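Rather than argue in generalities, we reproduce a single protein record, letters for residues, whole numbers for local backbone shapes, just as it appears below:
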Amino acid sequence: MHKKLVSVLGALAMAGAATVMTAPEASALAASPTEVCGPGYKVVDSEQLINRDVWVYLTYNSSNGYNCVVTVRGNGGTPVHMSAGLTVEGSSQNSDTGYYGSYAGPVYAYAAGKCVKWNGWFSDDDQSSYESPWSHCG
């Protein structure tokens, strides 16, 4: 019975994993989030904006304790209103908002030992946005 339950639970976990949306490879983007943020930054989280080929990325550089946020369009194009933002617990938000063809940001903040909120939005005919809860504490 135990092996059968483990097998069923494993199958359910795999089915759930198949529906998880993952960020596109850097080569499929107008700009790579790790290249935009710079050497040493690794993607720790990402979120696709609803009904958009636009992603918000949270990166972290463990050697200096800084996070970086960038909002990236999948294929670039005519400049549109975009934003990337980052708030460290106990501080005000840093953001970059403007009309961009490929990406908004990078936005940096020192966050070692603290929680962050990160966000991005994209607007052409209508707006799509994402804002995280407090997360990535540590």
In short: The longest strand covers residues 80-88. The helical segments are 2-18, 33-37. DSSP finds two helices and eight strands in the chain. The CA atoms of residues 34 and 41 lie 6 Å apart.
